Amino acid sequence: MKFIILVIKALLIYLLFILPKTIQGQDALSGIVLDTADNPIDNVLITAQTQKDHQLTLKQTRTNQKGEFNLPITTSTTSVVFQKQGYMTVGFNRGQLNKLLVATHLSVTLPIASQRQLADVTVKSRPPLIEHQLDKVILKVAGSSIEDIGSSLDLLKYGPGIALIDGHIFLNGNQSPEILINGKKLQLTGAARISFLNSLKSSDIEAIEIMAYPPVSFDAAGSGGLINIRLKKKLQQGLTGSLSFRGYQGLGGYPDYTPSVNLSYNKKKFGLQMGVTHDYFKAYFDVGTKRSVVDHSGTGQYSSLAKNIRKVLLESQNLSLFYNLNKHALLGIDLMHTITGGSTITAANSTLKYPESLHNQNGLGHYLEKFHKNFTDLSGNYIYRPDSLGSAFRILSDLALSQDRNFSISNSSYFDDQQNNLKDTSFITHYPSRSIIYTLQSDYKKMLPNARSLFIGFKYTNTGISNNNYGEARLHHEFVLDSSTAFKFKYSEQILAGFLELKGQVAAISYQLGLRGEYSHITGSIYNSLHQDSRHSKAYFNLFPAVFLKKITSQKANNYLMARFSRRIKRPSYYQLNPFQYAIDNYTTSSGNPYLKPQYTNAVALSYTWHNKIDFSLNYTNTTFMISPITSYYADSAKMSRTYQNIGQSDNFYIMITIPIAICSWWQSNNTINTGLNATSSNLFFLKKYYVSAALNQDFTLSKTTSLNLFGSYRYHQMWANTLYDPNWQVDISFRKKLLDGKLVMSLGVDDLLNTYGKSKSRQFFNKNLLLNKRTFQSREIKLSINYRLEIGKQFLHHTIERSNTAEQGRL
């Protein structure tokens, strides 16, 4: 361990003090030229015009067979022009060149010049909605027909392999992929997380990057993969802004509305962006359960129905500042503050029925859960780009503070078969918590000759969580402190990580090879006045390799083979570790587990892509020490307990096919089919099922300003841990209209048109017993989205404020 710390200290000194002094800047434009379908264009003529001492000179180069180019320029270069017969000419003036020199590896798109005019409607070749890259699949949102579909949650269902079931996100059959915003882990969980994703407008999103096999530059956390929501970066010189309103009305349910305001200002080297979002969300969900009970009263049937109404209010403010110190260096600060509050009201009715009615029981419960989260995140970064090839040295730092004030009130009454009152219970549980997370990251990416690159970096994370849990019991018509339930839970975690990644090409095979090492030291302490205090700590070191290979089988047709491998870890979230117990309904309690171990996932894939569009992949993932909420129940008792456990091993073998088809000029079809075999084994249950899922997305261009989108999905035998979901399907429809030269965009649609998605059934298997679940929730909704863009000035490149806490905050 001392040796590891010494090596990382030496690396830090080199990265912070020695390396920046050795970097020599060079002025050059380097990148790739693509067509509107993102295929590389060769033999493009690139001309740089330079004017010095009243003399005009030209410097020219051409793209190679891969569309790549490198063109040296000087401070006297006034313009750069890209030309090729059959394509529109694209040029950049001096002001734009200054911005491009600060940007990363340049990508230039040349639209096809010959476009057909039909009734004043320009028919263009639309870029593909889905793009396959070496280490990710990209859902291209900006400029697509789903750009104004609603929220980020609405967009996720369009991603290949992504499914939303009972409020959980699945990626390729694996639950709980990590969600990132611009490379930063989403710092909210539960209702606050859903509300935030619901408040994030689809019109603000550039693309969604789906990484079932993430590279080592990302934290190793997240065995279910990563989903990175990349926000739009291009804004305008001067003052810009947008006013938006998005509203949902559940058919037979409740409303959801999200107004927001965003303003941006840029002048020369200085940029500012600020936004305010308000989200009010109300919905119902009913949960029913059934199972058999065998006890001294005979064989009985237990059933329950819990009717829930949830309200959530989110207020979010964001302020971002950046300053270009020079054409190579950028300094950025970002402040985000969110307050999430709400409540869940539950009315539960539970019954126990036996052959002899005198043993029957009925339980009625009324529960109120109130939650309030105050979250502040301050991020800062320094980025130095020595050249225009994409080399960059970064220092990223982040401080996140969170305070939760949560409590619940439980009232239960139990009756016999004659409705005589047997007993009443009333209690209040409090579970407030505070947390602080500090992260520091430094890395350097060096672009090398022959399209190679070296990426090296380190990261340090320090986390502290404090929970003060206690209960109050009713005594003589008033609530008093119950000392037997009071305890404090403190959690401390330090993670030291380093990574190395090499990217390039050899023998016509493109490669991306990486290795990440992480040392973790964790301490958990429980303090209780009535019982013996306990303290446990552990330390472990893990290596996480990632390998990506690509072989082009046909340069002309753009066909290629790809192979991928990665190893990931999922550490328990902080609420999963908290052992505090609280009531869900009359017979069910829930608690965390401070003795959880991390789960590990190894994943491998082999894929073939035809014409850079149709993709066929074989995939296998193996997960050990799998973390899952398990509802424990036994045949001789009606009571159930829900806690997180390391349940065993999961194996998932599946085939995924992505088929984008341009059926005609006005009909674009994007389809994904996923089928495989999933098996989960533990000492208490074994499940093995074949499954199928399909997502069909159809875009219809009705006119230059009007489009129609139809989306359908089907899932058969989706499985997670000891839960098997019944078949489920849905159909969505939406219209999109552009007005005022595209500045005003309106979208109107209906989610779950046939009201099928909101009726979910599942089966849970535990210790040879079967638990049947049925959920009914608000899914059929009318949705309206209005977005107006205010633009004053010229275009400039907006800088995303990068952050270092990419994997910790989401575990709060």
Indicate the overall shape: globular
What's the average pLDDT? 80
End-to-end C-alpha gap? 28 Å
- Kindly estimate the percentage of residues that lie in beta strands according to DSSP: over 45%
Q: Per CATH, which architecture of the largest domain?
A: Beta Barrel
> How would you classify the helix and strand content by structural class?
mainly beta
Number of domains: 2
Helix content: under 10%
The CATH superfamily of the largest domain is known as TonB-dependent receptor, beta-barrel domain
CATH class call of the largest domain: Mainly Beta
* Low-pLDDT residue spans: 14-26, 114-125, 793-802, 806-810
Protein name: Outer membrane beta-barrel protein
Pfam families: OMP_b-brl_3 (PF14905)
Kindly describe this structure.
The chain has 812 residues and is mainly beta. The chain has 2 domains: 2-34 and 38-123, Carboxypeptidase-like, regulatory domain (Immunoglobulin-like), CATH 2.60.40.1120; 130-806, Maltoporin, Chain A. Helix content is 6%, strand content 65%. It contains 5 helices and 52 strands. The strands form 8 sheets. It has a 28-stranded antiparallel beta sheet that branches. Strands 10-11-17-18-15-16 form a 6-stranded mixed beta sheet. The longest helix is centred in the first third of the chain and has 21 residues, at 2-22. The chain starts with a helix and ends in a 15-residue tail after the last strand. The model is unreliable at 14-26, 114-125, 793-802 and 806-810 (pLDDT under 50). This is Outer membrane beta-barrel protein. Residues 398-788 form the Outer membrane protein beta-barrel domain.
